């Protein structure tokens, strides 16, 4: 059997892949656009006659440098068939047939490849068409476009000569748009354009329609291997071997009279997800008129009043396509002489809210399964619900002053600051600031962190500003080129609007819009009924638990509402940083005698007990993992530098003191400062992250461990006596050797026994450890002997696995690494699979070898990152733990990870 | 066949294990002492008659709580046989037989188990013996000792009552030693002692010799399970199941007349290793007289003049035993009435020098193989040759003023400092200091590091001072209790000698001796002919290469003399720290413009080129690994604290400035200080070890990499043109991601091509990387694609694997961890097998997967540590690299590791 190079739109059942129900294969052969046209034809939906030249033909062309044997014969036969079906003639002088020639690859590559419309026109055909339609303007304009497209696309002529001629014509006629030019003027342009093609390409514009067609198909084939298409594919990871299909379609005309028209519509509302058609149309018009906006379009709802038949038919087709594709459709249609034609259908784009609502509605309508709904919504779309947004009303009343790239989602409102130092100063003073810069650099990061949002006039999606903003969850718009920043005058100009430093500005990182003044925002809408339903379904599919990193009862209660099944990490030191407690904890550190120290520690006991009791109540019946004191002690004391400056100041004051009283006061202050300075100096460590912290503190100062354990168990007893069900789990941080854990475990067990004996209450509890040091991962087998559970502290584990300080590595070099491609992802945002992930796997193998059912989880910042959650699922962890506001994202990501794993298992099996 | 419980000394051929040539089994059954006695008997060497009760009998006793069936009957039969052979009678009144009852386990447990001598004495036997010997003093003293030993060992009475009675008797007689008491006094003590036994144990001292024997044997059995013996075994990892044998031996008397005598001797000189008998003897004396030193002993050489027969026989036996055991022997002998008896032989203890010489001599004598010689000398013994020692002449002329524990080898001479701050101050001022403290604590470490040696008046082998001293290779003597330290008067007193702070003192950490003043030292004696020979043999067995960590040509030349086969690590930054270069490198860091910076970098080029050329010449034909710049930049600048203090001082001076000139000068200084301060502040990092250093610097400042690469290649070209054979290997530090290496490699290759093109010379070179970050180990497969070699930086790898800062972790908590047993070894001294070792294995598997023959080595401090070297051998590394003075140790350790691996393979096969 010889190879077949094309299929007519109604040939779907002859496509070998379709016979095998290999719909991915159909798209591979016919391209996305061609496959959908064939689908529609098979469903009996009216599409203009036409055919699709396969991607295989494109690949054969690329290889041979010419049409493969048989292709042109098939094209001729297919054209003859169209003529027969339509009763029109290609190049005919009575009822002429025009066709469009469009590329259509398997994956959408918007704007990357070529199209030639109105193929089939020449002087004779034009005359025949004017005869037929009575619309010389339309016909000459179509003819003009064909010649221009043929010249640029097929012959590779620069567009400037054509555009220059149009410019001159508009100037002569005193109009702004080409469509306002008279038919006579356009007719002259047709002549001019033909001349230009002949001059620039040293070859006449072909009057033979078949020659036009042949060259157009060839041009589309060639455009697959254009440089810009290759670059795009390299960036999007689309294989070069796919090739593009070519769709040749009979043209229909929505401007052929009062019972003609054209429009675009989505099968549901792409903004809200409401289940009703949403779109625009124009009577007696061509598709480009709808887009160009030179005539006011009308909403699709009104079509029924004007043309009830086609309107009803279109609504039915919309439903039919949704049922067929089981997704919201974005359709183009034309009505020619009262007859409806569908020109294209594809999956519609939608906002996050719409995506969630459509997915849930479609399940309720029986169109898709719950599983499919959960797969369709992205974690980023759920994330959208968690960032402040401009309210719909506010948005409808505000006009953007500029547009840029929507690089980091969410809305931000604040006063403009043009330099990072000022942003930081105002930020620290409690003002909401938007940092506005031509572009940002590593030196600006402190200002970016202090700002509510970031706006730059240049820079792309991977610019420094974009990377940093996403990294830190700051709303940002970059590359807003309409804005001019004057750093000398300290203002920005957008069109006629001038905004001074200190004036308010509003940016929408979700859309890329910039507004003057303060646009009201609305808070995260987590009570959205569709989101709640969707996340409930996600919970049915996920096997990974989702816990919360919280430090106080209010946070815990919120996390529970958001769906947390326990606390994965309570950082007890956060309780010590509270202003009322810090002096007591400082006393623990600066105490001169052990007795003094013990008294200070004892004073913390009732405070910690209340903290823990609150957590147990909020998480009644659910596990609460409490981590023992972790950070280096110096974090609780004033900084060395500040103390030193104070001492210097006091010394200078001393030199100038005017009387004895003043002298004594200064001296007393100086002594106190020097004493604190001595303590801070003694605690100074060269690399505090690798120093005296975590379990090392617990071993050096066992009274702190005893106090914290006692607070946990006394709080548990208290809650039990109230009738509650506390589930404390104590976690030992920074273990690198099993002996550290063994000793702390013994200490904790002693306290537990003592409290239980004193109270007569039995407390069920677990003792476990963080795996956050490479050695702990490597020796997890031994460690598991003394751990009821392990929890990966992936932040610290990343820090030591990479030897990159969390504290300040970003500024020092990590952002440079991301910008110049040494790293493709920030390992503090997404778990590094090759390094940290491998250590996690080694740890789990070891721990499970000793203790097959050991509970395991992740409690680092990675717990809220979808890619990291997928890894956690693959590793078979029991849960991830993240901050309260990431819990919904984590629930969905966990479900999707489980579904992907099911797919992979299905393929493997 | 019923079980046999004892073997006479001449029954060796009946021992089942001996029949199977299972000599380890013989020692297991008869204990070390018993096995050697049986050996000697079998060799025809005269040993007194006797027998060994087996360890199996001991174990049976431990299990049953009583003698197993048949044992006592065998003892009775064996005693009868001794009586028959000796013609003496146990408990007889004419020619009485006395026996000793001694423990003797498979492994020596000095002082842990019990012994009863002179068994068989009672009033009648004593009278008979006085009749026979005419020496009432000797007989009553023997009798007194039996009763005392029986009382304490068998009956468990405290020794105090007996010692009190002796004290009172000495006081009454006005003598200092028991041996000076008259026979009459001792006779009274015998009566008193019998009374004490009766009173304290509520049972009479048994007059029946057989009863004495039975209880003595039982007591030795019991002593196997005494608490101290159990503790000792636990600490020495000797299994509890071994049991002890019991040796019962007829006593012979060296004090029975002028043709009797006794002595101890080694078959070679235990100090120098000279192949001649070395020992002492006394005529008409008992063994304890030789030890007690109340009569001057005579050197063994003189025995020939006095008793030529026994002397000749002893010399022959000594040779015979050496030949039999193939090692130097430590023997006890007694001559009774002209007849020589060997009472014991065992392997002799020896100094490091002697160990080396004996091993080499024995190979030359054909006694042992080269392989055995290499196995016998320990790395610690080779290490001895590398520390300064007091010269032999100096030692012979100096009298120690005190003795302590020899906890860290080597001699140190310096002025006494009683506090660490002073030690540090004097040390920094270039003075040799010995830090003298009652004991040390973590706060003292800076002073210990600054000192040449450490001396404490209290503290044991595992005291803080001992651990730290060994850790840092500082000679140290601890627990020198004869010294009294007066911290108020700032002096120390030893006997009548007073040494003031600032006076000289000398300590010998190898022997534990303390001397007043300056004892002259001699330098490492690496030219020792025997050591040279031994290390040459070691080289024949080792497969692991040994390279040197050196930074300049002189060091490199020395390392080559010591046996280095190349440079494993040249730290280029050490060249920048040189006083003449530091200002230039500081200029690189503080440059305001890129151009200024490039000029400063260029100024370094000729200096580095000369450095490298020198190294290539010194290591002509051998590989030289040059590591690119590694440390964080702030290390090259003054400290923040010092700068801040300077600024404060200048500010205060400014306030008091008296004229305009002074003001201007101060102001200029202040501005400069502030400018440096600003740069230091900008470079400040929270955790510099995890910050901008290593390859990260090379990527941020590629001009430095280019300059260093150019210096390497230009130096290589220069040396080639001189006719040399340079083998440069460039090493990229701190790689955590393959992309870092890839980019630096490209940079280096570009420079290499450029230099080769400019010069027209071809330079062979390699580019590799350190594996010193866990992620590099975990992803070594990918990294190996761009690395010609890998070198483990085990210091940094330990730092990140454990999350322990190298800079100051020791003081912060690591020493505590070692002291309280959380860690059993300092991971910065010996590679942690479970964590770091496992990462190394993972890295090697990965790298070899990509590149099977990739060169690998270790260049951390661990490269000179024998246990770590053994691990490196097991991992199949190509070489270890260590500081020049550790190279001989590494050569031996590498050979021993290879031999152990051969043994293990032999066993497995």
Can you walk me through this structure?
2 copies of one chain form a homodimer. In chain A, helix 7 runs antiparallel to helix 8, helix 21 crosses helix 37 (887-908) and helix 36 (866-874) packs across helix 37. The relative contact order of chain A is 0.06. Helix content of chain A is 49%, strand content 17%. The radius of gyration of chain A is 35 Å and the shape is elongated. Chain A is built from 37 helices and 33 strands. In chain A, the strands form 7 sheets. Chain A has an 8-stranded mixed β-sheet. An 8-stranded parallel β-barrel of chain A has the order 26-27-28-29-30-31-32-33, surrounded by 6 helices. Chain A has a 5-stranded antiparallel β-sheet with strand order 1-2-7-5-6, with helices on both faces. With 909 residues, chain A is α/β, with parallel strands linked by helices. The two termini of chain A are 34 Å apart. At the A-B interface, helix 26, helix 28, helix 30, helix 31 and helix 33 of A face helix 26, helix 28, helix 30, helix 31 and helix 33 of B.
Q: What shape does the CA trace of chain A take?
A: elongated
The span between the termini of chain A is 34 Å
Number of helices of chain A: 37
The assigned structural class of chain A equals: alpha/beta
Mean pLDDT of chain A: 91
Flag low-confidence runs of chain A: none
Describe the oligomeric state of these chains in a short phrase. homodimer
The percent range for strand residues of chain A is: 15-25%
Query: How much helical structure, as a percent, in the residues of chain A?
Result: 40-55%
Biggest interchain interface, per-side counts: A-B, 55 and 56 residues
What is the total tally of β strands of chain A?
33
Indicate the radius of gyration of chain A in whole angstroms.
35 Å
Query: Strand order of the main beta sheet of chain A, please?
Result: 14-24-23-16-17-18-19-15
